[in-house]
Amino acid sequence: YAAVEIVRASLEAGSTDNVTCVVAEVVATAPEPALEPLLVGAAADLPRRLAEGGSTASRGSAPSHRAAGREDDGDTGEMGAVTGASATIDPEAARYAPRAPARFTWLKRLLATAVLLGVAWIALAFAWSWSQSQFYVGVEDDKVTIFRGLNAEVPGIDISHPYEVSDVDLDNLSEIDADNVTAGLEATDLADARIIVENYAARQDVAG
Q: What is d(CA 107, CA 120) in angstroms, rounded to the nearest whole number?
């Protein structure tokens, strides 16, 4: 009822704006408890880790004796007890902290070297096997000869050798044919190389 009368009196007084009435009830309450600090994050897990590793009381007793000894004898160079704040590992410091050398490093390097050598040996064996399946026609002791291998030179390695020596003399061929045979004529296989030799033998007969 009091709120209604207040609003009515305000309107009769000619208020130029809206009239708002706030009604509140004052109730006595018990005093709020005192605020207590809470540990969160990694600091909250620290007591539990200490409890799992051993009693905090037993861990704290030894540093207290060392601290008493330092007060009597002076600085002994021993490190103090690790507190909860210092026990938290700094990720950045742990990142650059020195690490123990990896075990069996020499064995890993030896195995890696052996694997590389094995792969290289397999590649060389495959290349050599492929080269010995190739044939070309060249000259050996002034004779038209079929060679097995590649028509190329590798220092210190013979990658081709005479396979069949024909009776076609290089001197009995024309100058152009002799130059071509001397340079080497590639063949697709042994049969193709024999056909090339037969063609030059026929030219030799014609020239003769």
A: 20
Identify which has the larger pLDDT, 64 or 120: 120
b/e sequence 109-122, b meaning 16+ C-beta within 10 Å: eeeeeeeeeeeeee
- Distance, in Å, from the CA atom of 174 to the CA atom of 172, rounded to the nearest integer, reads 7
Q: In this structure, what token pair is assigned to residue 205?
A: 């007969």
Q: CA-to-CA distance for 75 and 66, rounded, in angstroms? A: 10
Helical pair 175-183 and 190-207, crossing angle rounded to 10 deg = 160
Please give the model's pTM, rounded to 2 decimal places: 0.46
3-state secondary structure 74-101: CCCCCCCCCCHHHHCCCHHHHHHCCCCC
**Per-residue pLDDT, 197:** 94
For residues 204 and 172, is the Cβ–Cβ distance under 8 A? yes
Helix (H) or strand (E) holding 147: strand 143-149
| Residue 147 Cα distances to 36, 137, 178, 184, 191, angstroms | 98, 6, 16, 9, 12
